[in-house]
Amino acid sequence: MQALFDYFEQFKVLSETEKQAITATCSIKRVEKQEMVETSGSTSNTIYFLEKGIARIYYYKDGKDITEYFALSGNLVARVQSLFTQKPSPKAIQMLEAGELIAINATQFFQLFDTYPGIERLFRLMLEASYLESVERIESIQFHSAKERYETLLKEMEIIQKVPLKYIASYLGITQVSLSRIRANYLPNDTQIS
Amino acid sequence: MQALFDYFEQFKVLSETEKQAITATCSIKRVEKQEMVETSGSTSNTIYFLEKGIARIYYYKDGKDITEYFALSGNLVARVQSLFTQKPSPKAIQMLEAGELIAINATQFFQLFDTYPGIERLFRLMLEASYLESVERIESIQFHSAKERYETLLKEMEIIQKVPLKYIASYLGITQVSLSRIRANYLPNDTQIS
DNA sequence: CTATTCCTTTAACAAATGATAAATAATGAG
DNA sequence: CTCATTATTTATCATTTGTTAAAGGAATAG
Question: Which residues 39-68 in chain A show a CB within 8 A of chain B?
């Protein structure tokens, strides 16, 4: 549980009381590789913190498996659209590497906002950060070639090397075949062609 | 000023006192077509509500003018990255149609959070909505062709017809020439080819 | 109204990515 | 370990989008 509060600490807003209140909404869950953390069709009521392991959010579009998001350990994962709108989600969360999750009960967590303004502030600040990340990802998709996006992803998430290629392709918005092609042509910057 | 509070009303969180407190952070500004509302290089300290008119956020990338966002009347516009990080922004806000803005002083507005939790909640809820919009735009860019994105934009924002094509192309992540080509080939769904 | 400037379209060709299919390679169950 | 399954690469061809250049239209200042 400590890792979660280390994560929250960057926002420097929680009092001890608030931390305790949050703790009461959390539970720990051990998960296997390939395990489904949340399945498509359900309405989300949980925010996960990934203590260890790798997860992805994915959905099916026109029969194709699309990876929307990769989560590495030390980060939060949630099906936010469903969480905020309280509608069933077409998306699912799946482990790509075994690990351990902290599951935050969102209903309970959101109720704390009325009693502890510091917790609502924490959430607001996390939202700001996520929103900026999202805006940056738009820019990345919109104005970079598939090759550039792949190189950026490699830099940002070295651990991505553990993830099957087929999941990465859809995250980058291209086909598996295109990604394979890009990798085949890919030469690191310091490679000399003689 | 009423239009702004009508907009806020959808979130149903503000008391009268809170509305008055917000009013004190606002000023009204009349703006001409083509007028620069905020210029590149400055650090943003203002959230705008567009009472009337059309605005865009844009920046230069590799010497090219890139439209990041179109704002239609009845919506908020802000250079959020700069606002949240308090760093100078490479982005600018420009009017495409003359109109009237409500300028919210962000420093003052954010300070109200400590006194009025309802105002912080309002902001949190607006952030949630913007974040979801942003996630949806990622999906739109990533898994739709330029043609599909153009059609979607037409449906979402009819007023976009007033906006010069060259600004729309970069918003869609394509070149002006490609957009022109798409429009040339474009036939509405109910058109019969005989 | 006219001239200039800016915007949009068109054309021709290049480059990137998609679709499909088949060949290898890697992985996991038994 | 071996077989069956799954993942990745390679190949070929089609399609989309980019690049550059030029021509045609629209808007605006004077």
Answer: 61, 66, 68
**What residues in B contact A141, CB-CB < 8 Å?**
138, 141-142, 173
Domains and CATH numbers, chain B: 2-116 (2.60.120.10)
DSSP string, chain A: -HHHHHHHHTT----HHHHHHHHTTEEEEEE-TT-EEE-TTSBP-EEEEEEEEEEEEEEEETTEEEEEEEEETTEEE--HHHHHH--B-S-EEEEEEEEEEEEEEHHHHHHHHHH-HHHHHHHHHHHHHHHHHHHHHHHHHHHS-HHHHHHHHHHH-GGGGGS-HHHHHHHHTS-HHHHHHHHHH---TTPPP-
Q: Strand C nucleotides below 7 A of a protein CB? A: 7-12, 16-21
Residue A50, beta-bridge partner list: A75, A101
Query: With contacts defined as CB-CB under 8 Å, which chain A residues touch B113?
Result: 121
Note the pLDDT tens digit of each residue in A74-100.
999 999 999 999 999 999 999 998 999
Secondary structure of residue B154 in the 3-state scheme: helix
pTM equals: 0.91
Confidence of residue A131 (pLDDT cuts 50, 70, 90): very high
For residue A132, give the nearest of B80, B117, B124 by CB distance: B80
> Whose CA is closest to B117, among A83, A159, A120, A81?
A120
Q: CA neighbours within 13 Å on the CB side: how many for A50?
A: 24
Q: What is the pLDDT of residues B149-164, one digit of tens each?
A: 998 888 887 767 788 8
Nearest to A1 by CA among A35, A18, A26: A26
**Dihedral sign for Cα atoms in the order B72, B158, B179, B96:** negative
Contact at CB, B132 and A81, closer than 8 angstroms = yes
Of B85, B124, B173, the CB nearest to A127: B124
